[in-house]
Every structure is written in C-alpha cells, then in structure tokens.
Amino acid sequence: MPVRVLIAIDDTDNSVSRGTGEIASLIAEAIEENGWGTAGFISRHQLLVHPDIPYTSHNSTMCFPVEMQQGALAQLISFACDFLGRECADGSDPGLCVAVLEQIAAPAELVAFGRRAKLEVITKSEATELAGRLGVHLSEHGGTGHGVIGALAGVGLRLSGDDGRMRGSLTGVRPGLVLTVRELLEQPDVDAVRGLDGSTLAPEEPVSIGDKPKTVLRGGASVLLVRPPDHPIENVSWETLPRRLLREY
Questions:
Q1: Do 41 and 222 touch, CB atoms closer than 8 A?
Q2: Hey, how many other C-beta atoms are within 10 angstroms of the C-beta on 218?
Q3: Are 23 and 87 spatial neighbours (Cβ–Cβ below 8 Å)?
Q4: d(Cα 136, Cα 205) in Å, to the nearest integer?
Q5: Beta strands, E only, 90-230
Q6: Tens of pLDDT, residues 196-235
Q7: CA–CA separation, 21 vs 60, rounded Å?
Q8: pLDDT, tens digit, 9 for 90 and up, residues 114-168
Q9: Where are the alpha helices (DSSP H) in the chain?
Q10: Phi/psi at 137 (5° precision)
Q11: Domain coordinates of the chain in residue numbers?
Q12: Residue 103 in 3-state DSSP?
C-alpha cells in the first residue's frame, strides 16, 4: 500500500563537519538507490535562536517527503537510524523523525509544535511525549539527543506547507539566464512563480535568474518568488529573490 512519509533530521553536525542538509541528502539518495521510495526536495526550516538552545550555527532543521510502499517503512527507519549513529559528527546531538502522513493522530498538533519551536524553548520530554501520542517515529542517536526537538518541529513545519525554503539551488537554471515563467514551471521543483504579494505572473513573462535561486514553501506548493529588479534590465520586469531576502524564509 503506498504511503506518504515525511523525514526530518536535526543537530547532526559540528562546526567543521558536513552539514545536516548534506546528511539529509545522503539519506534521500540511499532511499532511492535501495528502491524504498521516491524522495522529494529537502526543505530547510529555521527554528528559534536562543542562549538556552544548543546549536551549531543557525539552529535549522531539514525535512523531505518520500512516496513509498508501507512494507519498506521498517527498513527505511532502520537504515536512517544506523546511518545517523554512524555518520553524525562528534559532539552532535542528532534526532530523527519519520511520520506517515495518513497515520498522524492529530496533524494540527504537530504543525502547532513546529510553529512553537520557531518562537519558544521546548524541552526534549515534551517532544517525545507528543511524538508518542501522535504515533510518529522519534529517536535520538548520540549526545544529549536534543535534536529530536528540531526533528519533530521540522516535520510539523513541512506539514504546514507554509514554512521553509529549498536546500540547494534549482537545477537546470543558471545565474544570468533570462527564462520565461513557462520555462521555469517546467523545472521539476517549481510548482508556481509568484510576486512577493502573491500575484501570479503570465506564462510568457521573462524572469532574470540571480545567484542561487531557491523555492519556498507556500500553500503546500514549491514557489519561486520574484520581485522587480534592483537595477533596470532591458525587457525584463522580474528577477529571482537575492540570497539576503531568502534568509527570511
């Protein structure tokens, strides 16, 4: 039976190791290589930065969806647990959350938890209690295990459909190109192209591609946000958001 799964990890790195996003990418690649399912793009979700919260650099969590057969779920979880225990950096406090969307007892509570993690300090015991009650897998894989808080929050924020941005840049588009909205919508990770006010652009509108274009999650869709260019570009009224503005998502 096909199921939709969200997988999130947090606190897998230290200041000199590969980042949590790279670890998530390796897990996603292994899922597809083993034939367990098809992984979607990885989203980065910013959590609260606070003196009482230990983190490496930005306190962000990574999450990605997988479409798979339910019979492979136990293998996937076992692999991810072993992988984190083996590959995470010294001094990290990794956590893993795996949630089957159709089986979450109260999705609204999980979304609310994710949103709270952006605003307030949450205890590990609260995260584990909620995960148990909602029927999602939550496990710690070294150190203090405090990464379970961010992992659970990452699933909640991805589930909300209105938080986070794509990890990495869009494939198939290069800085300096000018592409129409139609051409951008042909990219596998772009569901919509919109202005900052939510407006939809006409299919033939040209868009200038800036450095490291990324989509953001809005309304459950992967949306490429654009704005009028800082400097005039002949016959072009739109450009992708610069990196400094993407940090807000």
A1: yes
A2: 18
A3: yes
A4: 43
A5: 95-100, 137-140, 165-166, 178-180, 192-195, 206-208, 216-218, 221-227
A6: 999 999 999 999 999 889 999 999 999 999 999 888 788 8
A7: 9
A8: 999 999 989 999 999 999 999 999 998 877 778 899 999 999 999 999 999 998 8
A9: 20-33, 73-87, 107-116, 124-134, 147-160, 181-185, 243-246
A10: -75, 130
A11: 2-165, 169-246
A12: helix
Under 8 Å CB-to-CB from 51, ≥6 apart: which residues? none
CATH 3.40.50.720 fits 2-165, yes or no: no
The token pair that represents 118 in the structure block: 């952006």
C-alpha–C-alpha distance, residues 224 and 216, integer Å: 6
Chain-centre distance for alpha carbon 102: 19
The pair of structure tokens assigned to 27 is 């897990």
Single-letter code of the amino acid located at 159: L
* Sole residue written with tokens 């588009």: 173
Match 């996603």 to its residue by tokens.
28
